[in-house]
Design brief:
The protein is an alpha+beta fold. The chain has helices at residues 3-19, 26-36, 44-54, 60-72, 119-129, 145-149, and strands at residues 42-43, 76-79, 87-90, 99-104, 110-114, 140-142. The strands form two sheets. A three-stranded antiparallel β-sheet has the order 1-3-2. Strands 5-4-6 form a three-stranded mixed β-sheet, with no helix packed on it. β2 (76-79) and β3 form a beta hairpin.
Length: 150
């Protein structure tokens, strides 16, 4: 991803904050830049470490509060991972695709899957039970191709 695209994604998130009447603090900007700068699935602890490198002096509690408020505002999404820490992403928008997470139970790697790919399953579950699955909120567990071959 180019630096221009990254800047646009962070700028979009900052614009959303301002449109909501929210402050754009150093901590919030550092969290947004950290989430946007990596394709990795970061938990709060990894975000704290990365923000500490990007913006020394931002307290860990401030980073956790920033993650919580950005998530409640819909600018950041979080995914619960069974047996592990919650991971965070910038929320899908014009320049970001909504996706769900798959995690290999053996090697613990994550794989992203477009939410649309789960639509047939969601429709079947909704029709048969009335339950509406939120595919972006929790990781689905399974075994990746590499681990199945071992």
């Amino acid at each position: 991803m180019s630096e221009a695209t990254r800047a646009t994604r962070v700028d979009d998130a900052v614009r959303q904050l301002r449109d909501l009447g929210e402050r754009v603090t150093l901590a919030r900007r550092a969290v947004l830049e950290t989430l946007d700068a990596t394709p990795l699935h970061l938990d709060a602890e990894a975000i704290c470490v990365a923000v500490g490198e990007r913006a020394p002096g931002v307290h860990r509690a401030t980073i956790y509060r920033s993650l919580q408020s950005l998530a409640s505002l819909g600018i950041v999404t979080h995914t619960h991972v069974p047996g592990s820490s919650t991971i965070y992403h910038l929320a899908p928008g014009a320049s970001r695709q909504a996706h769900t997470h798959l995690q290999c139970s053996s090697c613990e790697r994550f794989f992203d899957l477009p939410v649309e790919d789960l639509e047939p399953l969601r429709a079947t579950v909704r029709r048969s039970t009335g339950f509406d699955i939120d595919p972006g909120h929790a990781a689905l567990l399974g075994t990746c191709a590499d681990c199945r071959e071992e």
